[in-house]
Specification:
By secondary structure, this protein is an all-alpha fold. The chain has helices spanning about 1-20, 35-60, 70-80, 85-100.
Length: about 100
C-alpha cells in the first residue's frame, strides 16, 4: 500500500511540470504532438511501466519488490519497516551501544 502511494506521488510530479508550461505539449486531436511532448511522455511512461513490470514479476516469484530506488525505501519507512539498506546501519549502532 505504501509503495503505491509513493508511485502516485512520483506520477504527480510530471503533471506539475506540464502544468507550469515548461514542456510544450500539444495533445490536441487535430495537431500532431511535438517532439518534446513525445520524449517527455516516453520518459514518464517507460520508467513507470518498468516499475509495474518489476513489481509484477517480484510478486509472481514471491519476492518483495524492494529494488525500486528511493520509492521502495520510502514506502518501507512509511509502513514502519526497516529497509534493508538501513538494517546494517542499525545493527552496527546496536553493537556499538552493546559494547558500552
Amino acid at each position: 500500500f505504501g509503495q503505491s502511494i509513493m508511485l502516485d506521488v512520483a506520477l504527480f510530479i510530471p503533471s506539475i511540470v506540464v502544468g507550469t508550461g515548461l514542456v510544450p505539449l500539444s495533445f490536441n486531436m487535430y495537431d500532431a504532438p511535438t517532439n518534446e511532448a513525445v520524449i517527455f511522455s516516453a520518459l514518464t511512461f517507460l520508467p513507470i511501466m518498468g516499475c509495474i513490470l518489476y513489481s509484477m514479476i517480484c510478486n509472481i516469484t514471491g519476492v518483495a519488490p524492494r529494488g525500486i530506488p528511493w520509492i521502495s525505501e520510502s514506502a518501507e519507512m512509511a509502513m514502519g519497516m526497516v529497509p534493508p539498506s538501513r538494517l546494517k546501519e542499525m545493527q552496527e549502532m546496536q553493537e556499538q551501544e552493546d559494547k558500552k
